[in-house]
Amino acid sequence: MSEATAVKEHISHEHHGFMNTYIFSLDHKMIGKQFLLLGLIMLLLGGGLALLVRWQLAYPEQPLPLIGASQHYLETGEAETAMDSYWDSELSKTEDEQGWLVQKMPVGIITPAFYNALFTMHATIMVFFVVMPILVGAFGNYLIPLMIGTRDMAFPLLNMLSFWIAVVSGAIMLAGFFVPGGHAATGWTGYPPLSTDPAWTGVDWGQNLWCISLIVLGISSLMGSINYITTIINMRAPGMTYMRMPMVIWALFIVAILLLLALPVLTAALAMLVFDRLAGTTFFNPAGGGDPLLWQHLFWFFGHPEVYILILPGMGITSEILPVFSRKPIFGYKAMVLAMASLAFLSWIVWGHHMFQSGMNPSMGMTFMITTMVIAVPSAIKTFNWLGTLWGGSIRFTVPMLNSLAFVSMFVIGGLSGIFMASSAVDIFIHDTYYIVAHIHYVVFGGSIFAIFAGVYYWFPKMFGRMMNEPLAKVHFWLSFIAFNCTFFPMHILGVGGHMRRIYNPMQYEFLQQFEHMNIFITMSAFALGLTQLILLFNVFHSMFRGKKAGDNPWNANTLEWTAATPPPHGNFDAIPTVHHAPYEYSAPGISEDWLSQTNELQPTNGNGH
Amino acid sequence: MSDVFTEERANTLVQDYGGTPPPIGAGPSDPGNGGRQDSSGKSHANAILAMALFLGADVMFFAGLIGAFVVFRFGALHWPPPGQPLLPLGITGINTGILLISGAFMVKTWQNIDRWPHKKITKALTLTTLLGMTFLLVQGYEWFRLVAFGFKLTSGTFGGTFYTLIGCHALHVMGAVLWLATVTVRLARNRLDQQQRNTSIALIGMYWTLVVALWPILYGLVYWN
To answer: Which residue of A100, A128, A555, B115 is surrounded by the most CB atoms within 10 Å?
Structure first.
């Protein structure tokens, strides 16, 4: 018996109980799926919060549909529906006895304090518990060992801890909803003095838990990033040189470096904030010699790299999918890698563009404006190279491809609106308006979330061994794409019209009353967008058990994960593959197929030459 | 060609899956792979790289705190602010020397790990640990006196930055001393084979070097006037 067979048997004979297989698994693939599940659950929650925000903006201080009290009850006080009698009985209780719901939204009307918590937690959850766990946690864990050709991460135990610490962090974050005073209500940026003094917002432990949760999440992400970097540097299969790595691995590699270096700065800032709140220090309080601007500098010094942490994996996924469904090599591989590296570098020196209006020295604003404009260069390199990849290809409009194309086009819109804001003169006008909200959602929803869709549709067959339902997936894509644009595009117009973000009731302002219909249109589109995601959830869970069985390489793709069995067993490969090619050799001349696996060693043909 | 490679890689497999992989810092401790030079070499390299990355993150954490300190100190008209104590420059200077000597012992041991006899390594590490403990005790005594003077965490940004920055460093020293002591005891009891010994000394060596190297910077910034 050869050693390889012995090893194979060793792997297949390993017995794992339910707990070790599904809960405390050390296997990178299972941990990746766990992150995916965590992210999807949080996506539902974060999306729900956004819909509550949207309801309030379109129908300010009106009862929510379904759970709110009826108009009849509000006018006469007579209970008509079941919810009416519920609100009636709750409101007749003393304040101490009242339930959670009635404190947050009496008779179904969202209170101002709860509204502040809603938009704060929508952003916090989406950034830290949806996009990061899915793009970095799920795809990073699932793809890195498979695509570089190794059996697992360098530190599987650390990997498992990283996931469970993220769960603990999520639990702490959600607990904030149920403490007296409500959850953090400062916006996800947590600016002092709102965040330092409970007197301003009435929020006490909500803000503390917010800080603690993010500190804990920092530990999880530290573990993850150390693992990713070590694995990519030390564990690549023979022949897998850096310049043969798939683009998504490059993206995750660069993101891990950003995470490693950026999150500790946030941890330091959060530690100071917690001390200010609990131990009586005055880091951010001018009364004791502190400086509220210091928080903004520290937060955005972390925060801007964070923005690239959210988008780079999406760029990687897109760069992975476009060549496969164009049946062409990616255009300008090296330029793409260098563009990502320079984006990562630039992300460290642009944080001041979040602070043009903060009272920071205006001459620094000029510096930050220039560095920010420079970001357009690597971004344009990426965009044009994606277009170059598509040019002349035999394009297949599969669902992953559709979502990737949406990524490219929406990212361009988000990128272009970014250039407006980077100009400090224009920013005076559009700062803190819905223009900013439109921009962030074009890059994070139009970018990251469409990349998540693309990635899920593309790798689902490998992850679960079954194909997703294609017609349903197409319906999901087109509805999402249309509803997304109907939701977020009008926000540009709102922003230019001076519609402030984070306000409770726009109808209080005479100059915003003209936007009522647009706000209603946006809210309806947002609800459509939210409901559309149920199709995705149904498709994921239905296909997991009932989908058509998938082959090992359903897309005829070149990268290593498609050479593994479907779904890959513990240990991934029968034998560690040897890599002979770059990852995007599609339609190479002289080969009968239009693809060439990275493991496929071509023999020189004895033709006319010798 | 590729078959040869497969077998060679397969040798490392037992290590990859032979039980729970060691956490960072523990070194390869799985008895199932003791004899395999290749695999333990790989996990040694992984551990060293992971430690280096962790230290990078740690430096960024301190960069955040030091950045805040610099903003306050060099933005203030008077530092220390009126009514606040001067920090004990002299005794902390001596203490800095103690820590640096301890760091020198660590680096020497690390460099000569394959040359020095086992006894000498153990001795040098014991000295490193004791010097680290001395540093902590002196620091603790100083803090005690400062607090008795009325200088607290809540004494404006001067007190706040002092206790957070120096306190974070002290926590690092404390953790490092505990870890050093553990390694030294295991070494003295002959609990580590050569590979494990080299890995643990390299890891704690890296960590201790960072903790020691940070201190003169903090001393210069925070104590010096």
So the answer is: A128
Q: Tell me: ipTM over 0.95.
A: no
Q: Label residue A289 left, alpha or beta by phi (over 0 means left) and psi (-120 to 50 means alpha).
A: left
Determine the distance in angstroms separating the CA of B192 from the nearest CA of chain A, rounded to an integer: 21
The enclosing H or E element of B16 equals helix B2-17
Contacts of A222 in chain B (CB under 8 A): 54, 57
Q: Which domains does chain B have, with CATH numbers?
A: 53-223 (1.20.120.80)
Residue given tokens 């919810």 in the structure block: A83
Average pLDDT over residues A256-281: 96
Structural contact between residues A160 and A178, judged by C-beta atoms closer than 8 angstroms: no
Scan residues 72-91 of B and list those with Cβ closer than 8 Å to A. Answer: 72, 75-76, 81
Check the CA dihedral B127-B133-B139-B141 and report its sign: negative
Q: Which of B16, B54, B68 sits opposite A283 (nearest CB)?
A: B68
- pLDDT at residue A591, rounded to an integer: 86
Tokens linked to A368: 């930050």
Instruction: Give me the long-range contacts of A66-75 (CB less than 8 A, separation at least 24).
Output: A67/A101, A67/A108, A68/A105, A68/A107, A68/A108, A68/A109, A69/A107, A69/A108, A73/A107, A74/A107
How many Cβ atoms sit within 10 Å of the Cβ of residue B104?
A: 14
Is the CB of B50 less than 8 angstroms away from the CB of A226?
yes
d(CA B186, CA A503): 61
- The 3-state DSSP class for residue A361 equals coil
Task: Report the residue of B43, B46, B78 to disrupt the A interface, i.e. the one with the largest count of A CBs within 10 Å.
Answer: B46
Does the structural domain A25-71+98-546 have CATH classification 1.20.210.10?
yes
In this complex, do B156 and A282 lie within 8 Å of one another by their Cβ atoms? yes
Determine the Cα–Cα distance for residues A289 and B158; give it in Å rounded to an integer. Answer: 9
Assign A346 a pLDDT band (cuts: 50, 70, 90): very high
DSSP B123-168: HHHHHHHHHHHHHHHHHHHHHHHHHHHT--TTSHHHHHHHHHHHHH
- Residue A500 pairs in a beta bridge with A433
Q: How far apart are the first and last CA of chain A?
A: 41
Upper half-sphere CA count for residue A430 (Cβ side, 13 Å): 25
What integer pLDDT is reported at residue B40 of this predicted model? 59
State the count of interchain CB pairs (< 8 A) between A and B.
Answer: 159
pLDDT in the model for residue A459: 97
Percent of residues, chain A, with pLDDT higher than 90: 86
Q: What is the mean pLDDT of chain A?
A: 93
Q: Write down the domain spans for chain A.
A: 25-71+98-546
All residues of chain A having their beta carbon less than 8 Å from the beta carbon of residue B71 are 291, 294, 297
Beta-strand ranges (E) seen in A305-445 are none
Q: Is A286 on the interface with B (CB under 8 A)?
A: no
Q: What is the DSSP string of A10-50?
A: HHHT----HIIIIIS---HHHHHHHHHHHHHHHHHHHHHHH
Distance CA A282, CA A572 (A): 53
